[in-house]
Design goal:
5 helices; ChrB_N; Chromate resistance protein ChrB
């Protein structure tokens, strides 16, 4: 049996006194890439590093006076295995599509708008560079939890690379119009 054939199932309970605690646990599990089967029951592939991160979530559950149990699923029926794999792929594909959308509807438009306004400043270029770094971090996070090889990864990389090219051109125009900020 390969590690790809094993899944980890987390079943947990967090006291219902505050929704903030439940939301915090849910957010951590979603960030980890957990696939919810039903409320407070989720599955993750048994991959290197996943169990350690899941243990940290369990510590958080304990801190909130909750309870949790992990089960290693080694004999998953083929139908359910296919459904899990497809659900993981769908989740990652959605995230790749969101990155593409962010590039096309925000990043590209931001540079276009700054060119229209003729706002060629180093401050603006730096602000846009920070947006590019956010996109890169987001893409790395999505890739880290794309265990099943979802479609859309290549397109997301292409769009982020296109963002970088557009920013490089914008920065070159800023430099040309404003000059070297270190000269003088």
């Amino acid at each position: 049996m390969t590690i790809d054939e094993r899944f980890l199932q987390l079943v947990y309970r967090v006291p219902s006194t505050t929704s903030r605690a439940r939301v915090a646990v849910w957010r951590e599990l979603k960030r980890l890439g957990a696939l919810y089967i039903q409320q407070a029951v989720c599955v993750l592939p048994d991959r290197p590093g996943v169990r350690e991160r899941l243990d940290k979530v369990r510590e958080r559950i304990d801190e909130l006076d909750g309870e949790s149990m992990i089960f290693v699923l080694t004999e998953v029926e083929e139908r359910e295995r296919r459904a899990l794999v497809e659900s993981f792929r769908e989740n990652s594909a959605k995230e790749y599509a969101e990155i593409v959308e962010e590039c096309e509807t925000k990043f590209f438009k931001e540079i276009e708008f700054e060119r229209f306004r003729e706002n060629y400043t180093f401050e603006e270029a730096e602000e846009i560079r920070q947006d590019l770094e956010k996109l890169r971090r987001w893409l790395r996070k999505v890739e880290a939890r794309d265990w099943m090889g979802a479609p859309g990864r290549d397109l997301a990389h292409e769009k982020v690379a296109e963002c970088e090219r557009l920013l490089d051109l914008f920065e070159a125009d800023v430099y040309e119009r404003v000059g070297d900020p270190g000269a003088g």
